[in-house]
Amino acid sequence: MPRGPIWGTSPRESIAAECARRGKDAVVAGCIELVRGEQSDPDLLRALAGPGVEKFYDGAEHEDDYWLRVWGLRGLLWSWDPRAAGTVCAAMADEHWRVREMAAKVAARHLVDEATTALADLRDDSVPRVRAAAERALVRLARADA
């Protein structure tokens, strides 16, 4: 039986429970590893993604492993440390749009000033959801600076 929070809760609540269990620094470090494409332990992934992560443990190759980076960013959305800023900025150049969109959301929530240039570039992204997330983030950053 896997350890970790029982799903039926929100990602925010699940991530908060994981921070309480292992410590915020460990959760943030694991999320940074995920966003960088490094593997993380299954319990952290279950806390970030819930039951959807189980398919990645079936031994098969998966073309949609970009979800691991999305889930790492989701963790940073709800458990932030400024040391993740560079990783979030780098994620805005990811080949998968869901990663870019979530990186923009993280930058908006945590007012990551270092992301301004990357966010400006995302206003020309080919995916409307990414463009919208980038625009919202830039507006939020501008308001915070005002």
Characterise this structure:
- With 146 residues, the chain is mostly helical.
- Helix content is 62%, strand content 0%.
- It has helices spanning 11-22, 24-35, 42-49, 66-78, 85-91, 97-109, 116-122, 128-145.
- The longest helix has 18 residues, at 128-145.
Provide keyphrases for this structure.
single chain, 146 residues, mainly alpha, 8 helices, 62% helix, disordered N terminus
Helices and strands in order:
Blueprint: H1 11-22, H2 24-35, H3 42-49, H4 66-78, H5 85-91, H6 97-109, H7 116-122, H8 128-145
Q: What's the gist of this structure?
A:
The protein has helices at 11-22, 24-35, 42-49, 66-78, 85-91, 97-109, 116-122, 128-145. By secondary structure, it is mostly helical.
